[in-house]
Amino acid sequence: MAADEWLADRFEEYRAHLRAVAYRMLGSLSEADDAVQEAWLRLSRSNADSIENLGGWLTTVVARVCLNMLRSRGSRREESLDVHVPDPIVSREDRIDPEQEALLADAVGLALHVVLETLTPAERLAFVLHDMFAVSFDEIAAIVGRSPEAARQLASRARRRVQGATSAPDSDLARQREVVDAFFAAARRGDFDALVAVLDPDVVARGDGGRLRPALTEVVRGADAVAGRALRFANPAAVLRPALVNGAAGVVVTIGARLFSVMGFTVTNGKIVALDVLADPERLRELDLSALDAG
């Protein structure tokens, strides 16, 4: 086997892991793929024989690439009041393919990804690498250009933000599905009280309609407000296809055979505590929903 083929094979051993790191860092599947590709280009141009720990080296490279990408887009996000719902991972309820399974390890739900979007690039890197992938603070410090103690503090601040803004979803997917089904049944009946009954009093609904559907981009808080919003947008012509969205109960919504939105729910203690809706036509076109049609 030629040296370049051997190196390519070694890289493929780490591709799923690297894509998972990049997805958690960026919340974008296309950008994650770009980061992984950049890691391969840097590896192919390096002296691979001198790399003692290839997996660690590649993880560091991907992290640096992602950090630069986060910093470059950070000013645009900070200047915008728009809500950004990260790319969802959509799969069938009865089966998740191995590539998606790697992306969804540790049950990184869509609501958590939304919170990660609010962190600074350095906080996000420290939290993702240490708390999700057990990278040491010494290694993280070298990436962000700070001391190990400063890296520890970055992760600690991020952890407090995450813990204060997210709830652990119920582990029973069947129970999650019952609650989500009850939500849609109540919305279609126009039953405000039934809607409120399945919503946590402090529920947060986030919609991202992108530049083509700005009216759908908003954050709605509280059971009454979310229930009212659900009633206004209930559409009898909508077809709801049950799916797993980032490992939790969700739906893919089509209207007239056209993909309209992907909705992810966080169900905790039998109540919906978060609802995240991606309705941006430009980003919806980029989603790979082929897993839903796999036999």
Spell the H/E element sequence: HHHEHHHHHHHEEHEEEEH
Q: What would the principal axes of the Cα set say about the shape?
A: globular
- Summarize the amount of helix as a percent range: 40-55%
Number of DSSP strands?
Answer: 7
Largest sheet: 7 strands, mixed
Which superfamily, in CATH terms, is the homologous superfamily of the largest domain? PhyR, sigma-like (SL) domain
CATH topology group of the largest domain: Butyryl-CoA Dehydrogenase, subunit A, domain 3
Overall structural class, as computed from helix and strand content, comes to: alpha+beta
What is the level-2 CATH architecture name of the largest domain?
Up-down Bundle
CATH class of the largest domain: Mainly Alpha
Strand order of the largest sheet: 1-4-5-6-7-2-3
**How many individual domains?**
2
